Amino acid sequence: MLIAKDLWFRYHDDWIVQGTSLSLEPGDVVGLLGPSGCGKSTIARLLAGLLTPTTGEITVPPHDPGPYPVQLVLQHPERAMNPHWKIRDVLAESGAGEAAIAAVDPNLVNPGWLDRFPHEISGGELQRVNLARALLTDPAYLIADEITASVDALTQAQIWRLLLDQAGSNHIGVLAISHDRDLLTAIATRTIELG
Ligand SMILES: Nc1ncnc2c1ncn2[C@@H]1O[C@H](COP(=O)(O)OP(=O)(O)OP(=O)(O)O)[C@@H](O)[C@H]1O
């Protein structure tokens, strides 16, 4: 289980995260909703181990050295990858070997993209690559922070279908962060509301 207990965090003087607690079980899909600036992305970074809470405790599943068991996928995939790397090298950053990359679901990553650079595929396609890279680390939990906020409704539905299929078959717990209450109602079994 991924457990956050009474998290407090501030970047400077103001407390951004004030006593947040939440838990996520393997296979759970939980929404996180709240107004802009209330600290959703900060909570995401705390859970993914990219920030350390000032006080409070985060329990993650035991894991070997290597990729962290809580992976974070962000809204802008182009900011999360080296623009000079081909897609196969972007995916290899997960630590996955050639065979695992070749075995990625072609609905998620079209094999024809592997020898292209990030700017040579669309934003929605690049987000699928971003998602595939996180999934290739074999995460126990995935935090999806506004991952479909920049794509059209059809692509949004397609990306969420792929993510939920993969999460379901690999028993991955998902925390879906969004401003879109309707989206969270459609995909999550429960939603935590902040602010
Ligand atoms: N690196 C940082 N340094 C200082 N302040 C920051 C930093 N990152 C975020 N903040 C501040 O922390 C607060 C919470 O930001 P955060 O991105 O967590 O909110 P959010 O709920 O995800 O917002 P949004 O829905 O607009 O993405 C904001 O006031 C923001 O300005």
TrEMBL record:
Keyword RNA-binding: no
Domain (ABC transporter): residue spans on this chain: 2-194
Pfam families linked to this entry: ABC_tran
Entry GO MF terms: ATP binding; ATP hydrolysis activity
Leader sequence segment: none
PROSITE patterns, sorted: ABC_TRANSPORTER_1 (PS00211), ABC_TRANSPORTER_2 (PS50893)
Gene Ontology BP term (one): transmembrane transport
Keyword annotations of the record: ATP-binding, Nucleotide-binding, Transport
Family membership: Belongs to the ABC transporter superfamily.
PANTHER family from the UniProt entry: D,D-DIPEPTIDE TRANSPORT ATP-BINDING PROTEIN DDPF-RELATED (PTHR43776:SF7), TRANSPORT ATP-BINDING PROTEIN (PTHR43776)
Protein name (record): Peptide/nickel transport system ATP-binding protein
Organism field: Kribbella solani
